[in-house]
Amino acid sequence: MVEDGGAKLDNAGGFAFEKYSQESGAGWWMVGLIDIQAATKAIAAATEAHALSIDPHAVDSMLKKLTAMQDELNKAMLKSMQLGTRTPLGGGYAEQVGQFNREIGIQVVSEFVPKLTQAIEDLKSEIKKCRDSYRQMDAAAEADMTDIQGRIQP
Q: Are the CB atoms for 54 and 131 separated by under 8 Å?
């Protein structure tokens, strides 16, 4: 059912994703990668400008979650390696399904997981830099306060 020639009412999410993919030139797997890369750039810029301070405990939590995400991607890659093998399902349509599955499995193993894993690693690196910057600024502020207190008290 189509309301006004636009999105199908029963699959609005799919329609929106398809529209985004067409406009951005991104494939189905690129959407998450683009988001992670954008977050990495934003954190890098904010850290460089000293405009972002993150509680070190929050950073540790973020890093654990990102590492868990990488672990899940590695599990998915192992399963995709199985999907990438030839599956003799029969002829005709079954053969086409088997070939499609094989192509998706190969794409996941060779492109998607390595790029997404690297993007997560880059994000983790920028988050660590942000934490280090925060610690350096905190230490400098503490040193300034100690110096000021030393001058006030004889």
A: yes
